Amino acid sequence: MAPEAPEAPEAPAAPKAPTRTVQGLALGEADDAAIAAWVAERGLECPEVASPRRTTRQRRCQGTYAPSLLPDRGASGALTEILIARLDDGPAHHLSTIRKYSLPADVAADYHAAVDAITAQLGPPTQTRRVDDLSAFDSPLARFATRWQFSDLRVDVSILKAAGSYISLNEVWVIPGVEEQAQARGGGSLHGDLKPASPANNPHVADDP
Fold it and tell me: Which residues does 116 contact at the CB level (< 8 Å), separation at least 6?
């Protein structure tokens, strides 16, 4: 009788994040009052809006804001969107931003600055791709991404150049699994409507039509 093959060892569980506070907002703790105070302190006007389809609420701040509004990150790109999300009865579980650029050198510098700042805060990333050659932006499509994966936090910083001349720098901080807890508003099932944020799935796309 042939000996049984040994069982493959289980992959080690991801550790917890050393912190889940980003730009002064504590994910997993900040309730509606704390989120409102965070927004007001920065002079933003983005009322909380409830999703008509599911039990989530968002503050989506859209406009053109001073790059220094969020000082922990790059300072040259035009800050055009800030998104904060929570469940109806839960604290903030998602904070993300979009910055727009016209010059590849500027977005590359801010991307590396963001990666360095988050690395100092959370430790080395789980996976990363640095911008070593700006000629990559000569192509119609270009993408670079860095991720930190913890059991209770995922952080993504990504550059995306698609159709057109502008390039975006997206930063996403999200507590995994929380969006999947949302229910259809008024009962029922969402049938896989929820899609966790990742560099390939832009969280700033409107949740509802």
Answer: none
User: The tokens 């050198």 sit on which residue?
Assistant: 105
Helices (H), the chain: 32-41, 104-122
- As a whole number of angstroms, the distance between CA 45 and CA 205 comes to 19
Convert the pLDDT of each residue in 14-44 to its tens digit: 899 999 999 999 999 999 999 999 999 999 9
**Any idea which residue has 């949302």 for tokens?**
182
* Long-range CB pairs of 41-47, under 8 A, 24+ apart, other chains included: 42/69, 42/70, 44/82, 46/82
pTM: 0.84
3-state secondary structure of 78: strand
Burial class (CB in 10 A: 0-12, 13-18, 19+), 149: middle
